[in-house]
Structures are given as structure tokens and as C-alpha cells.
Design brief:
Blueprint (H helix, E strand, L loop, with lengths): L5 E5 L7 E4 L3 E6 L5 H16 L2 H7 L3 H4 L7 E7 L2 E10 L2 E9 L15 H4 L4 H11 L2 E3 L14 E2 L13 H11 L1 H14 L3 E5 L2 E3 L2 E2 L2 E4 L2 E6 L5 H14 L6 E5 L10 H11 L4 E5 L3 H5 L6 E6 L5 E5 L6 H4 L4 H6 L8
Parallel strand pairs: 3-15, 3-16, 7-14, 14-15
Antiparallel strand pairs: 1-2, 1-4, 4-5, 5-6, 8-11, 9-12, 10-11, 12-13, 16-17
Helix pairs in contact: 1-2, 1-5, 6-7, 7-8, 8-9
Length: 347
């Protein structure tokens, strides 16, 4: 699995002069406002720049002035993969923005003017090594906490359509599971095994058709013969099922961005989640933002990045294994070391 090794950011929210290593599994911890979610937003913004959707992504963030660090006139980004490095600088211009500088080390990007708000990388001819880099960057997907409200897509019957992933809102969860069951039964069985480990009463998943071209899903429980449709499941059970399906999927993108995957999960499920993240990082680069000290308990220092604030209120990112923790870890778990303030990243 080839991912990105380094990210540099200057002028985006609290990320100023940030230069951090990225690893196959990067789990960011720290207090609110420390820059964790901003890192996910930057990776998502860079993905949009490679897709030809930079203008749309900035608009969704409220425009460039909403994310530009106070007092700065420009924001710049740099992301590296192997010997290739992509650089992008943009600045406000009128009610929009302009691309001040752009480059892909080792490749020549064409001078294009068709779409002034989009990058040359997105508009370049789709062939050769530069295209391979663009595709890798463009494949980054940002997953927020799953919507599990009563009328959310994950609680309703879903249309049958090709789906290698469960969807950002769970809108393709049933079809994704159905495809796995039919074409990759070992992977489907691994999902059910994870559910049995997490929920002692769980038996199996069934996916009955409920109308022309639509599927439902029933969660079978050994103690309840009729099982549970998704509109009857708890928030934690639904979110865990979605996470397991996502992280076990063979179609994971090159970069998977997860914001607070621990929401609604019982603490005992976090050990399973840590193992799922670790296994998935062999097939996709996984970058996570979390507030859960219990999740940190099941991680290694080389998987944890600490987000702190400097005296002037800017973000500072530090890998836990670069800190002198050996003596503390002989007596305490990593989450206890964090709670004691030895890692930083506390409010």
C-alpha cells in the first residue's frame, strides 16, 4: 500500500508552519481546537483539488476567508508520496480566490486556463506517472460520524446498485454487504465474526428484498427470533456495523479519513475497532481524529500523533513515539500516560 509520507500546511485555520510525517495508520489525539479535524479537512481539500472540485470544497468550508489563518494573506499545502511532492498555494481574490503557485515535483504540469478556480493537476492530460499521483490524491475520502437519525439512509430500505463501499451516509450499506456475501464470502464472514465478538447475542445478518429493486437488512439475534430491522437498532450497533463494513471492504480508497469513529461505541468495542483500523491500514492509509482515551489504550505510540497548541494558539503535531515514554509505559497504558499529561494534547 503506497500512501503519503509527509504533509506541510501553512495558513489553514490553526495549521501554520506545520510539517508532519504521515504513516499507514495515523491516529490524532488532543483537545478540541487542536487542529486534528483541520488535518482531515486539508487532506480532503487536496483530494478535491485533484478531482477538479477545489472551488466546491472551499465553498462548503465557507469560502477561503473562513479557513485562512487570521493575519495571513495566503495558504499553502505540500503533500509527498515517494519521490513525488505536490505543492499548492492559494490566496483570496475579490469574492473568490486565485491559485498563486502549483507544482508536482518531477513532472511538468500544463498551463491551463479553462477553469480558473481549479488546479492544473486536475486539468492535466490523464496519463503517465503524474496521473497516477493525481488518482492517489483524488481517492482520499473523508468520513464524518454516521448519521443514524430515524429517517437517515442507513435506517431505510436501500436501492440495489453496485457498491464496493457502504457510503459516507450508509446509503449503500445493504448492497455492499450483499455484494460481499455473494462475491467475497470470507470477507462477509469476517464482518459477522467481528459483530459476534462485539455483541454476544448476535447470530447473523440477512438481506431480504422488500420491494422491486430494494433491500432491507435484518440483524439476527439468538435471543430474539424475529431479529431487528435497522430502524430498530441502537446507534452504537449501527455505527459499529457501518465501520466494520467500511474497514473490511476490499474497495477502500487509497486514503481513508475518519473523524471520531468512536462516537456511540461502548468502550469494550474500542479494542476491536483498533484492530480493524490496524488491519485496514495495510490496504489503505488511515488517518483518524479521536477524543477517546480508551481507544488510545489499544494503540501503539508509533500509531498516535498528539495535537497541541503553542503559546500563540497555533497547532503543533508530535508523534508519540518521538517522546521519552519508555519509563512511563513500563507501568502505565498509553491512555493513562495521556491522562497524566505526559503526552500533551490535553485541554
Amino acid at each position: 500500500m503506497s500512501g503519503f509520507q509527509r504533509l506541510k500546511v501553512d495558513g489553514f485555520r490553526r495549521l501554520c508552519g506545520v510539517d508532519c510525517e504521515l504513516r499507514p495508520l495515523t491516529v490524532m489525539i488532543g483537545a478540541n481546537g487542536g487542529g486534528k479535524t483541520s488535518v482531515l479537512e486539508v487532506m480532503s481539500l487536496l483530494a478535491a483539488s485533484a478531482q477538479g472540485k477545489l472551488n466546491e470544497a472551499l465553498r462548503d468550508l465557507g469560502g477561503i476567508t473562513a479557513v485562512l489563518t487570521a493575519g495571513r494573506s495566503q495558504m499553502s499545502f505540500s503533500v509527498s508520496s515517494g519521490a513525488s511532492r505536490y505543492d499548492l498555494s492559494i490566496s483570496p481574490s475579490g469574492i473568490g480566490y486565485e491559485i498563486d503557485a502549483e507544482g508536482l515535483e518531477g513532472f511538468e504540469l500544463p498551463h491551463v486556463n479553462q477553469l480558473v478556480y481549479e488546479t492544473a493537476l486536475a486539468q492535466a492530460e490523464k496519463r503517465g506517472p503524474a496521473e497516477q499521483f493525481r488518482q492517489r490524491l483524488a481517492s482520499s475520502v473523508y468520513y464524518h460520524t454516521l448519521d443514524v437519525r430515524p429517517r437517515s439512509p442507513v435506517r431505510l430500505p436501500q436501492p440495489i446498485r453496485p457498491a464496493g463501499l457502504p457510503g459516507a451516509n450508509g446509503e449503500d450499506l445493504f448492497t455492499c454487504l450483499y455484494e460481499m456475501r455473494e462475491a467475497d464470502p470470507d470477507r462477509f464472514d469476517a464482518i459477522q465474526d467481528a459483530l459476534r465478538a462485539a455483541f454476544p447475542g448476535f447470530d447473523k445478518l440477512t438481506l431480504p428484498p422488500v420491494a422491486a429493486g430494494a433491500l432491507a437488512m435484518i440483524w439476527r439475534d439468538r435471543n430474539f427470533p424475529n431479529g431487528f430491522y435497522t430502524h430498530q437498532l441502537s446507534e452504537g450497533a449501527l455505527r459499529f456495523l457501518w465501520l466494520v463494513t467500511l474497514l473490511r471492504s476490499a474497495a477502500l480508497p487509497d486514503v481513508t479519513l475518519l473523524d471520531e469513529p468512536e462516537v456511540s461505541l461502548h468502550p469494550e468495542l474500542l479494542a476491536i475497532l483498533a484492530d480493524l483500523l490496524r488491519e485496514a491500514s495495510q490496504r489503505s492509509q488511515i488517518i483518524v481524529a479521536t477524543h477517546s482515551d480508551r481507544l488510545v489504550r489499544f494503540l501503539n505510540p508509533n500509531e498516535v500523533m498528539v495535537a497541541d497548541l503553542t503559546d500563540d494558539g497555533l497547532a503543533k503535531l508530535t508523534w508519540a513515539d518521538s517522546l521519552d515514554l519508555d519509563r512511563w509505559l513500563t507501568e502505565y497504558t498509553l491512555d493513562q500516560v495521556w491522562s497524566m499529561g505526559r503526552l500533551g494534547g490535553r485541554a
